[in-house]
Amino acid sequence: MYDPAKPLVVQSDHSLLLEADHPEFESARDLLSRFAELVASPEHVHTYRITRLSLWNASESGVGADEILAGLARLSKFPVPENVQFEIRDAMQRYGRLTLVRDAQGRLALFAADPLVLREVRGHERVKALLGEMAGDKSCRVPDENRGLLKQQLLRVGYPVRDLAGHAKGAPLAIELLGETRSGKELTLRPYQQRAVDAFWAQGRAEGGSGVVVLPCGAGKTLVGIATMQKAQASTLILCTSTLAVRQWIAEILDKTSLTAEEVGEYTGDRKEVRPVTVSTYHIISRQDRAHLSLFSAQDWGLIVYDEVHLLPAPVFRVTAGIQARRRLGLTATLLREDGHEGDVFSLIGPKKFDAPWKELEAQGWIAAARCTEVRIPMSAATRERYAAADEREQFRIAAENPDKTPAVQELVQEHVQAGDRILVIGRYLSQLRQLSEALSAPLVTGETPQRQREKLFGEIRRGERQLLVVSNVANFSIDLPEVGVAIEVSGTFGSRQEEAQRLGRLLRPKADGREASFYALVTSGSAEQQFAALRQRFLTEQGYRYRIAAFSPKDPGFLDVAPVVDLAAERKRRAAQGGPDDA
Amino acid sequence: MPERVSLYELEGQLMQLDTRGLARFAERIGMDYGGRENAQQLRAAITDFLSDPQTIVERIGSLPLSQRRALAAVAIAGEGRTGPFVVHGDRDEAALHADYQELVRRGFLFQDPSYSYGREPGFIVPRELLYLFAQGASYTLQEQKHPSFLRAEITGESAGPELLAALLRVVGEVGRQPLQLTQQGSVYKRDLDRLRKVRGAGHFAAASPAWARLERVLSGAAERLADAPWSEAGRDVGMLLWIGLALGLLHAGRGVVFGAIDWQELLAAGGREELWRNGTLSLTDMLMHKAVSALIVLRMPSEETWFAPLDWMPHVYGVPLRVSTLESQQVAALSLLAAGELGLLEAAMVGEQPAVRLSPVGAALLRDRPLPELPIERQVRILPSGDILATDYLDPATQAGIEKYARPTAVDVMTTYRLDQGLVATAASEGVPAQAILGFFEAASRDELPQPVRFRLEEWLQDVGSVRFMEVALIACESAEMRARALSVPLVRKESLELLGDRWIVIPAASEERLRAALQAQGIIPVAEVHRPSGLATERTLRQHSRLSPYLGSLRLGVETYGLPLGEDAHGED
Fold first, then answer.
1. Which residue pairs, CB below 8 angstroms and at least 24 apart, start in A336-341?
2. DSSP run (H or E) holding A372
3. How many CA atoms lie within 13 A of B157 on its CB side?
4. Residues B445-498 pLDDT 10s
């Protein structure tokens, strides 16, 4: 029966609408996050979606259909639609009906408690081709090399298999997490980091050892990876998105563990070191000549870490399908993939083991609050004329490089420099960035900047010796600049959710003084750029960030005069009351 | 009369009347025509009066029920023409004819110049008015153009089952009349499609909880009908028939039985099986499809069970039918559409399959289950992204307002809309003040209007009207010197809007005559003809004309009229 006092609406398309200002919001959110994906979390109403994958992830973590349905019934204003109930029961009863196990002789087998299920999946040609001979009516042998492919195919036919066949231990390697980093800071895992490690490891049982940990940028995913290495005590292969990220991983490992430089190798375009802990890039593994695929078998790896697993390229999926006996940890800020291959991550890396929503960590003070402002810049008559005469592709670029963005950037920079903030000006077009670099008297970091020079400049920013850098897209991924509090995006690949998440992620590290981060996107008004920016705006508002739009006029400065999103004093007080860090 | 004006158009009908006849006609239809002295003015005024939606609503609302019904029969069912309807179980042909004559007198119908039924003349609704009358005689929640009495019923409150029972009795009554199928089934389908269109049904997916709307209509109507004469006499079914039509419970085609087709089976009326047995498939297929829709609903095993319509088909047909699989699929599709539209079915995807079952109101009305309580929470949440979430129980004004500015993106327990720049701009350009649009959202939103939404709305509204088309004329001079001479004429200088290239002057089109005279007074004689290029002026056409001018021998000064956007930079070089 209808009860308007409750906080949730369950739609028949499997989406869930949760009132964010409802007194029961937090308990409802805790429940929903166990079996539904958070799709959007703007002000007022958050949207979750129940999918088969989200339900199977829930099954994996021990949540049952009855518990879900009871929770929905308790929270929902309207009766839960019948088809949603049906889907939840149907999906969840499918998970775990098939298991991959090892028999007494250590041979891999697919087991089904119900012989009919086994018969049904054998009816699918692609599944059958991966299976060996039957062993009784409930079990069927599986060649070891087919373990990953079989999991993929079974997922596709709607019977995700629980992989309980265990993992190889790998070559032993003594790794200790230091109580104090080599740079002299106290080191302890935050509670949620510890929970993530424990959820993944599952006390070393066969249920654990493969899966994905979802944490927002700035929440310390690297440390989760390192702590997992400590659990595994085995040689480890780490795959990242760029050489810079490789070096940051190595620096972190050496700073926070007992490992020595001789035990940690870099396997990139520059160096080809294979050591007990080897850090490499997806790029080199995915090269067309396949010259470096042997890295997966170069050592008896006991753990493979996939950093930014949502970017895992197809060739790495294929290799991963063949190494299912290795422990696999995926680290990411989002399970969303632009290519829609979430199912492959589920079957080949493993189910989601831990997820902590951004906003929750932000509320607890583990990551910085962020304030997003879209600044609309008009076009001068001359630019407008050029824009009008250009073709569509050119138009985007003309709008992106609108020269009138420069005074707006200058004003923003001036404001934040005075406030003592460290600032990144990020853009896509080098000519524009060079011009800005000159106008702002700030160094420019691009793909052409030598590695040593980049590291020098980033080091200066980290240490507070420098307040402002102009960077190209190279700054988007896996660069750890925790003290940068302001990002000014002057041009971008608008519409890419990944890029926006990464750019904002640069800012989300907790600031020593609890200061909130600021993200500005400069957009030329009345242009194609504005249409693309609308996609970004949608993404960020759906991620829960308060988003404001301000109009800039070169003749009328003061556009920054928008109310602060967060009352800093109140925020610090609240964090202190919650036991979160007051100076992270 | 111009050759191309047809007598089936209002203009054609009015063309037959002279000034005196037009004045008499205006008096007859209750129109104030004072001050208009010639036939052209009178025709224009009558046309405006007859085609004004608000006037139509009021005029239809003032008609007696029997005349409304007759008008609906012609406008909705008859595609604007009368036919030998056999829908009047309690009325005779003479009464019907009297209604038609009265509708003619009031300016709703006109005599069909080419068609008659036996000794009786045929009647038409002029083409220009057909859609308006159909709409006025229909029920659309989104547009407030339905007759006043129906509007009252929409907002009324009461229980519905009694009314539905009464409706079903009417349907049964009508259903027992002999059917005269004078057209193929396709006519019926066309009517159905048009009715859907008129009712704006395309807005709502099958999963829509439209039952709430149905319930509201039924509730209000029941209350109203409690005092209606028919309920005592049990004979005057006009009101029910009208509501049945408005809701789509009753349908008719030209010369086809009026109403009852789908819903006769609700009373398991006799005679249908006979029709099915005797009628050929080609003649009755569409009728059967609709009847089967009703059967599917009625023969469902339980309102708790979802089922795939196609799986259920063999159980639905009570009599053997020669239908192919394809036709069965069509039947299923139509079933879903019809019953879903009426809110009697819920539809959803169960696994990979579409599935349906009785909605709560369907179960209440058709299976004597208790009618579900109508939720009273009415709320609109506007999100920063511009998405609008609305409960399905909004008052019609709020709902109509939202749908004026936003497009539905998902229809479910909560309906989702997305703000639409085009709709907002259209409303603004039609005269809705920007402040009213913002004010509407502020008032409708449960929370403070998010800043990005407010910014975007203001931005959109700011742009409205900033571009307009103007009629301008171009003074094209043969040389720069000639233009300088022309500009030395004070009036030309004063009226010039823009100088293009080195030889052209842009002036308001309306100033052409005055400037021509002013130039002539200064001894500058423009060519007599105004050059009018066939297409819009572009840089290219301007160049072409500038190239042409030297060859025009005696041409010293030309005046060319263009639709030229101001501020466009044209180059006047040869």
1. A336/A310, A336/A497, A337/A310, A338/A496, A338/A497, A338/A498, A341/A314, A341/A317
2. strand A370-377
3. 5
4. 888 888 889 888 888 888 777 777 888 888 999 889 999 999 999 999 999 988
pLDDT at B170: 39
Q: Is the pLDDT of residue A440 over 90?
A: yes
Q: How far apart are the first and last CA of chain B?
A: 49
Confidence at residue A482, expressed as pLDDT on a 0 to 100 scale: 72
DSSP type of residue A297 = G
Of residues A577, A484, A502, A576, the one with CA closest to residue A539: A502
Average pLDDT over residues A546-571: 54
* Six token digits for residue B52: 């004004």
Domains in chain A, please, with CATH? 8-94 (no CATH), 98-163 (3.30.780), 191-356 (3.40.50.300), 365-578 (3.40.50.300)
Residues of B whose CB is below 8 A from A12: 207, 346, 348, 412-413
Report B:336-365 residues touching A (Cβ under 8 A): 346, 348-351, 355, 357
ipTM, 2 decimals? 0.70
Q: What is the pTM of this model?
A: 0.56
Using CA atoms, how far apart are residues A434 and A472, in angstroms rounded to an integer?
Answer: 10
Q: What angle do CA A172, A174, A180 make, to 5 degrees?
A: 155
Cα gap A522→A490, rounded to integer Å: 5
- Residue B164: exposure state from Cβ atoms within 10 A (0-12, 13-18, ≥19): buried
DSSP code for B74: I
Residue type, B517: A
| B446 three-class SS | coil
Helix (H) or strand (E) holding B95, with range, is helix B93-105
Sequence length of chain B is 574
Please state the length of chain A. Answer: 584
Helices first, then strands: H and E counts in chain B = 26, 13
List of residues 6+ apart from A280 with CB closer than 8 A:
A237, A238, A239, A240, A246, A266, A267, A268, A292, A295
Name which of B211, B413, B460 to mutate to probe chain A: the one with the most chain A Cβ atoms within 10 A of its Cβ. Answer: B413
Q: Which two tokens stand for residue A340?
A: 């829609």
Is residue A106 classed as helix, strand or coil in its secondary structure? coil
Q: Is A494 on the interface with B (CB under 8 A)?
A: no
For residues A120 and A127, what is the distance between their CA atoms, to the nearest angstrom? Answer: 10
Would you tell me how many other CB atoms lie within 10 Å of the CB of residue B48? Answer: 11
Q: Does A3 touch chain B (CB under 8 A)?
A: no
Question: Is residue A34 exposed (0-12), middle (13-18) or buried (19+ Cβ within 10 Å)?
Answer: middle
CA distance A5 to A28: 13
Tens digits of per-residue pLDDT, A470-512? Answer: 988 765 554 667 778 898 989 876 555 556 666 666 666 666 6
Measuring CA to CA, how many Å separate A51 from each of A14, A341, B25, B30, B64? Answer: 7, 14, 66, 63, 56
Could you say which DSSP state residue A5 is in? T
Percent of chain A residues past pLDDT 90, beyond the cut: 26
Q: Which residues pair with B406 in a beta bridge?
A: B419
DSSP bridge partners of A12: none
- pLDDT value of position B86: 32
- Cα-Cα-Cα-Cα torsion A209, A212, A218, A221, nearest 10 degrees, comes to 20
φ, ψ (nearest 5 deg) of residue A234:
-145, 165
Closest CA to B169 of B268, B93, B96, B101: B268
Contacts of A541 in chain B (CB under 8 A): 383-385, 452
For residues A201 and A329, give the distance between their C-alpha atoms in angstroms, rounded to a whole number.
10
Q: Give me the pLDDT at residue A568, please.
A: 32
